[in-house]
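Field reference: sequence -> structure
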Amino acid sequence: MSCPNATNAPEPNGRRERLTRDGAFYGWPTFSPDGQRIAMAVMSRQAWIDDLLSYGEDMSPRARQRVELAWMPAAGGDLRRVMPLHGLGRPHFTTDPERIFVFQSADPDLSDHGGLVSVRMDGSELRVHATGELHSDDWPDSSRGAPVSSPVMAPDGRHLLVELERQIYLVDLPVAGATPTDVRLDASQPGQLARRISDVGGEFAGWSLDGREAVFALGSSLYRYDLESGSRQETTVRIELPRQVPEGDILLSGARVITMNGDEVLPIADILITRNRIAAVGPHGALRVPDDAKRLDLAGKTVVPGFLDLHNHQGTAQETRLIQPWEFISSLAYGVTTGYDTGAAGASLADYADLIEAGELVGPRFFGTGGILLPGVVDDLESLDDARNLLRRYVTAYNLDGVKEYAFGDRRKRQLLLMAAAESGVPAHTEGNGENKPGITEIIDGYTTHQHYFTIAPLYRDVVELMSRSGVGYVPTLLITHGAQGAEEYYYPRMPVHDDPKLARFTPHPFLDRQTRRREDIWLQWLHDDEWAFPRFAKAAGAVVRAGGKVGVGAHGQRQGLGYHWELWSLARGMSNHDVLRAATVGGASIIGLDQDLGTIEPGKMADLVVLDADPLEDIHNSTAIRYVIKNGVVYAADTLSELLPESRQRNWLQGWQDDLPAR
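Structure field:
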């Protein structure tokens, strides 16, 4: 977890005390066994941003993580730097308060020093204790070094906890010698015994103070494994916070309202919002309005339901952060009030969703699948019970909203996963991956959505009717495509993206600069207008809509905020403007099973609305002429995300990205 300033435990009055003197990002602070020091991983803000910029890409040497092992007195004070870290290993101690243990990723310049190492407080006497199978290669960790839960040595130095493929292994180590232990989890080695102590899964492994118990978590469950008896105890941790719901009534007066109830358009209408729901919709001046209702004159404006992004990868927001993720505010400012992430790196999605619901962060309401099920994750899925255990991890433990598989296994494995998902009552999503035959069988078998496009165009009648009659949700994601140039590259040279003041207000400049000042990836090409493939794929999606099928909008997180509108405009190459808006609202809500609360403007629905200065039915490019965004009954000024109603509030949205958080 990233934290811009390390603090000690809350005082009895609930206040926090800042311990660090330098503004930076600190990870995994750990007390020494005598309680006198705190060890941590530390990196500067710029290094942290550089690391996020290079996420999943080979941009060496600029991408190399500039992380350092450091410590400070437990009472606060100056930071003492120990040594550079290669990867994101977690510092920890055994019973010796003078040596810090940490995982070091293999490095070409330090080939003898990879693995679990320890070092004295001054950086001297580095020792390698274990090598081998010590960290997960589960995507996307393989490109970033050790995952958050790296190997952890027991206090007695005789046992090791290893997280691999989201499972926890206990390794009994031989008596320490001059040669590091080569850990192998799949077969016993001389002098060591490895066994899996989790069943459904596990994360964040550690030890009790006396070393007699291994502890780990999975979602809301804490597990304690007794080394002597081999028994495992589960404790469910339940934390409840009030959901943020605004108070009072708001009248939106005199707007053109595109309700998304069929073709209904109310030329001059009023919308009454009570708390976070739509209470009434009707002709201008006809509603009964409470005397104390706050009013917003929308004469000449057009109101549509809030947009839903059904393929809403949130980019760098892959670990829980204590500062406001810029991706969330950028999406919300451009009218996306609900996001469905079909491929976050882990269960952090659930953390963010809860933080937003509680009002600790601002952004679209979030749903999603957590980590994608890639081949390496589910190679051992051989039975329905295997699939059920996998669903227990995702649905029961992580409280996620579905699962997504990506080109894994054969059809039988994919059917087993689908059967387990159906038993759990959650949707199962699949990705095209440039392969047409698996996509056809997945639709036949009953997968909820087909994400990304079919690589053939046009789609013939048999495929179109299969999609429409099966009820599958088709989310083409035209901005990013397999085997063809994505539509994203069509828009960058055609509009001043870098100099867009609104986009710059919600995007830290390093992220905006990297993608807009130049487009330097080797696969990007200049194309003549008739060489672009996305208009053909849009026409295929339009054929599905005209046949009665379901199409949703997914912008893939390519350019948070503005990219969603690029996807709308791309879809308009193959369908009417009204159908595009349906895909963005009621169609998307229906696909993910939220149409009882979202997608249309009618009494009882959530008060998620977008107020436009111009009519998108006349020109779909008017979708960016956003005056206000209303999410959960809160009215935001679209250009600044200042909260206007029911209460006025302004924030420094990029605080912590471009300056320090204040000490508290």
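Note: The CA atoms of residues 149 and 488 lie 35 Å apart.
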